[in-house]
């Protein structure tokens, strides 16, 4: 009898086919296959992915679908994970009061202070004044160099320059007197003229010191204590940068205002807690843990968090075909982070780092339309389909085929939208829990913290190591190892940070260091994966004591990550737990735990009969 186990996951759909001898209950595993899940887990759209996976598997085995006697589908947990980011505050600059800028290749170095003047209009120049010259793209760097050198010869005190084009180095190389130059100012027309400005450019490998210090800016512009307080957001935005410019206009001002992110109302069985998103992740999670089992969560009306919650519930209502009132939020994960935000009112798309809270929410309904999937498959494949086997239970049964494991055994399955944790006791009792927050949240944090605006690239950074192209023939990895190439690399990659994906090098077009990327990536994984694993294991372990769990097996696609298993082993070793990446059936690695468990579960059922 040939049985096919089908596991519909958030990201992948996995199938395992085996041949069972009904007389002696012996089992022969014929093979496994996985494809990307089509549609949202547990919906009719999954049929396409299931059909594709089974078709490819039987083709590899040189058999027909009609040879399969039974298809078993897991009872896909009716949960959907959603993520959002809420910033704590926002900086707005009115009337171009102060700006901060950090082009990749400024010219010269040093600190310059002077009055802004347009290179195009040089009337009424006062040789007793210091000037910062503003150069639009109407001038080439050669034309600008000639004009500025003429000003030098006429004893005009040009102390620095602001350029629209990316020509700071080219201009500086042609000047008789070296000055700090800021370039790549896209909105050059917004630079206020005849106003006092300060430019600072650090030497290569250094960062600016004066303009990133509120009191440094206050010293330059002779600010009062109240005015100094207002320019803190600008100083904060220039920390760690190689160059910056600050311009003061009397009528302008900098405002830092609080955004109404909203208040969460966490409803438990016997307790209701309210918590403001702006209090940060640690305080939010303290409230979540205090509640225990969450019945539902609401957001303060008219706020960002309320809009997010309503959108998620409406979405779940549509796919599960039930009333919105029956859709309940069962878990929340909050993570503190920092993200680059554009300063409104700036002149060169300036950004600054701001605190934010990343939020993952898991929604649950009473059921998913699995019977519809069953009917469609039976009609299309002409094969009986059976739906049973709770995900967590099936995963633990499948994980037991990993050599070196024993009961009780716990599994951790980190998916795209949620993290599943389950434990199978010696008595056969199974406890499981679905937690909000998983791979997609990590990707979102990486994308936003690094300011990539590219989810695909953030996903690759999450999954692969990075390096820096140091020459056309060498690349230094994040571990410090040097890789040599026989053929020259693409010149466009020179000096770039790249993602090393197999034989491909994916460039990261951002002015960031290897250390920064690695720090963000690891911190995101620790904040989401490790935090969730610990709180999940505490929930299902006897008396909440992790020391009672001897084995933890990582299953699912995230267990293939190049650093997650080691991070988990290191953390759980503190509790005396033997943990590691699963090797299902001693051949599949961490994949196919649920689909294998479905088959084994069927065998146990017929043994009992």
Automatic annotation (TrEMBL):
Top-rank lineage group of the source organism: Bacteria
Boundaries of every DD-reactivating factor swiveling domain copy: 93-254
Pfam families (UniProt xref): DDR, DDR_swiveling
Diol dehydratase reactivase ATPase-like domain boundaries: 275-602
NCBIfam families per UniProt: reactive_PduG
Protein's recorded name: Diol dehydratase reactivase subunit alpha
Protein source organism: Clostridium chauvoei
């Amino acid at each position: 009898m040939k049985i096919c186990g089908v596991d519909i996951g958030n990201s992948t759909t996995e199938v395992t086919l085996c041949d069972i001898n009904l007389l002696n209950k012996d089992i022969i595993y014929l093979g496994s296959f996985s494809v990307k899940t089509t549609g949202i887990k547990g919906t009719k759209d999954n049929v396409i992915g299931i059909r594709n996976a089974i078709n490819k598997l039987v083709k590899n085995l040189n058999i027909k679908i009609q040879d399969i006697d039974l298809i078993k589908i897991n009872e896909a947990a009716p949960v959907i994970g959603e993520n959002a980011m809420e910033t704590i505050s926002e900086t707005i600059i009115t009337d171009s009061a102060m700006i901060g800028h950090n082009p990749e290749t400024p010219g010269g170095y040093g600190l310059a202070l002077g009055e802004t003047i347009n290179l195009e209009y040089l009337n009424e120049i006062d040789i007793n004044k210091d000037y910062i010259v503003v150069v639009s793209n109407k001038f080439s760097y050669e034309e600008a160099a000639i004009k500025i050198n003429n000003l030098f010869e006429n004893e005009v005190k040009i102390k620095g320059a602001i350029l629209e084009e990316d020509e700071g180095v080219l201009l500086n190389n042609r000047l008789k007197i070296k000055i700090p130059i800021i370039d790549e100012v896209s909105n050059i027309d917004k630079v206020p003229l005849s106003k006092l400005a300060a430019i600072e450019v650090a030497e290569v490998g250094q960062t600016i010191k004066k303009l990133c210090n509120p009191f440094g800016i206050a010293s330059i512009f002779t600010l009062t204590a109240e005015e100094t307080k207002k320019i803190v957001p600008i100083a904060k935005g220039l920390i760690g940068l190689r160059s910056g410019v600050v311009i003061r206009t009397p009528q302008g001002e900098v405002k830092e205002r609080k955004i109404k992110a909203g208040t969460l109302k966490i409803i438990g069985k016997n307790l209701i807690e309210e918590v403001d998103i702006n209090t940060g992740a640690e305080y939010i999670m303290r409230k979540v843990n205090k509640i225990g089992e969450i019945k539902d969560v609401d957001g303060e009306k008219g706020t960002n968090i309320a809009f997010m919650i309503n959108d998620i519930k409406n979405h779940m209502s549509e796919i599960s075909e039930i009333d919105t009132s029956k859709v309940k939020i069962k878990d929340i994960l909050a993570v503190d982070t920092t993200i680059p935000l554009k300063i409104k009112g700036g002149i060169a798309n300036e950004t600054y780092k701001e605190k934010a809270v990343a939020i993952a929410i898991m929604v649950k309904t009473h059921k998913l339309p699995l019977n519809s999937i069953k009917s469609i498959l039976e009609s299309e494949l002409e094969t009986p389909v059976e739906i049973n086997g709770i995900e967590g239970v099936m995963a633990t049964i499948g994980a037991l085929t990993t050599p070196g494991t024993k009961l009780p055994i716990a599994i951790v399955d980190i998916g795209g939208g949620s993290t599943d944790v389950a434990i199978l006791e010696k008595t056969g009792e199974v406890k499981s829990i679905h937690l909000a927050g998983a791979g997609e949240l990590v990707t979102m944090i990486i994308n936003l913290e690094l300011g990539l605006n590219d989810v695909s690239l953030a996903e690759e950074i999450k999954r692969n190591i990075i390096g820096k192209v140091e020459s056309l023939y060498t690349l230094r990895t994040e571990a410090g190892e040097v890789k040599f190439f026989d053929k020259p690399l693409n010149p466009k990659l020179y000096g770039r940070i790249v993602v090393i994906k197999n034989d491909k090098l994916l460039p990261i077009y951002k002015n960031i260091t290897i250390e920064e990327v690695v720090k963000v990536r690891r911190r995101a994984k620790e904040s989401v994966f490790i935090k969730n694993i610990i709180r999940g294991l505490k929930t299902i372990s006897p008396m909440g004591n992790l020391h009672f769990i001897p084995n933890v097996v990582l299953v699912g696609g995230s267990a293939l990550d190049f650093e997650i298993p080691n991070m988990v082993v290191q953390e759980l070793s503190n509790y005396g737990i033997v943990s590691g990446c699963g090797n299902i059936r001693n051949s599949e690695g961490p994949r196919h735990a649920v689909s294998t468990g479905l088959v084994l579960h069927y065998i146990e059922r017929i043994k009992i009969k």
